[in-house]
Amino acid sequence: MNTEASPSYPLAELAVLADLPPRTVRYYVQIGLVDRPEGETRAARYGTRHLEQLLQIRKWTAAGVSLERIRELLHGAPPPVPPRACAIGSVSVCSHLTVAEGVEVVIDAQRAGLSPEAVRQFIQGVMAAFEAVQGQGGAASQGAAAHNTDKNDRQAGEP
User: Fold this and answer.
1) Are residues 27 and 69 in the same domain?
2) What is the pTM of this model?
């Protein structure tokens, strides 16, 4: 039995999480922008997928994209014009992933259009890739150090 069920929310809680009025959430479901919930009326439950859809819709409406265009985007149409460059005085929230001493990745999930789950997957992928490079790097860095020593000896005129 799976004890880690994905979270589910009643409409009121989902609306708070998405920072939208419940009426707006119901409207988005009615016009097909958001998937239908599990269950009906007061027993309806919404999951992570619904929350991600609502947050994406909020992002696009804040950028001035029409609901009709949002419908097209949600059904696979090409994305809108790339986001505007940051203007002087604009604020963005970024995550800083410290991979190792001297290696840091800055993630602006909103500008990249990444959901919280996509950010988690990206971070896991970066960490796994770095570990793989580190695992291969032991022998490779020794070979590179020997190569650099030989190069330095040749430049100094030593045999």
Assistant:
1) yes
2) 0.46
